[in-house]
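Annex B. Sample input.
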Amino acid sequence: MGVKNLIILIFCLICVHSTPLDDYVNTPDPHYKYELLKSYKMPGFNLYVLNLTSQKWLDETIVSNPIWWHFLSITIPNNLTKPDAGFILIDGGNNRANRIPEPEDDEVKLTSLFALSTGSVAADLRQIPNQPTLFKADPTKTERTEDQVIAWTWKTFIENPEDPSILLRLPMTKAVVRAMDTITEFAKKQSKANVQKFMIAGASKRGWTTWTTAAVDKRVFAAAPIVMDMLSLNQNFHNHFRSLGGWTFAFNSYYVLNITAKVDGYGIFALQQVVDPISYFDRYKDKKIMVVVTSGDEFFLGDDTKTFWTNLISATNGTALLHRVPNAEHSCTGHEISIFLNLQSMFLSVYEKQNLPLVRWKMPNNRTHGIIKAFVDLKSERKPTSVKVYFAKTLDSKRRDFRLIIADPNDPSKTIPHPVVWMTADILRINEETDRINYEAAFLIPFDHWLGFFIQFSFPGLEDSILQVTTETNIVPEYYPFEDCTYDSCYGKLV
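Annex B, continued. Sample output.
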């Protein structure tokens, strides 16, 4: 084969693998710019608040705010021991903010703490997505935020799958990529930093953006998508329906636009090809990924991971980690610091090329017991200092429902507490061998409710940190309480 033909072949292979997400992110945008708004000299670090204009998304005939701008708060520690690495918290916020971020803001404090404890540059990137947004084609003329924005873009795409530019995940991802560009350039001017690689993290829809950013940018060496494990959309939609007999109230933005009635349509499968992380698993080979989820998430199921975890382990050469936070809901309120400390431990391990814990498990349930058999491979040179079993029972036999918040049965527009409490159980059987430690947890399968359980491992990390990982959640009995839906019958109800 001649050189010319080889070049053509390589070019074609690249083109075939390119997706609309790649094309959007990689298209130069003349609107990109940034400016320094304010700087703070703090004990041990300097904080710089920038106004970042990341792009123009669509135009004024489609959306009210096509120019996307963000507050980007960059912390550079005085003791910069890792000048080539950075961390980005992908954050929310409002593009009508009436004040710039300050050192005492919660998210800024967390990223500054991260910078100080790791000796790296860390940043809080806000207004992902830019919101509120008004779509000119929306007959309700609603100024949409959060899931309302995403739902409208899904609706529009499902109706016309030939135009993926409407999908909000595209500009959300591009904004993070532009933030990486900005941090590298700006930090180099202010210090000895030369940031060439990043760990990124974000929660919920920012967690989804964490997945997609890791897929499109090779500078991402580690990623922590938080409370976003609803990969394999169509399959998990059906598991959701069979578990709850409808849809969680948290899906209201999608429900009112009739998207739940279209989960089996061509549009959803076309959507998956563009934004579902499972479409990008082949790109996570060299990424270190920790999936952070909660036990009481009102958006997602406790075992969403079963649709993709084995494939993710294979895609990441066995390095992907799972961390389920007990007794937390979707917002992770009260657990922010513990989650960040876990991310700090992961960052240090990956940066220093330390082996991550190698934990494997299976769930060989039988007719009488739900079982998790796990082992820690000692070849990873990581031995846990603490191992716990967490379990919880659903409050009744009606739904396979571990949410901490549910819709009020008398008024689905309101919510009420649903106190599914996770407790520890001293039931673990341990057997240590030369090259591994085996663990087994078993519970009797209940007949009047569902029971979920998982095993949590705490490993010593670098610089006195602790790295916590868990198994997947085993939910027994293994049947679903509701019949599955198909096509229009999936419209359902909110619960």
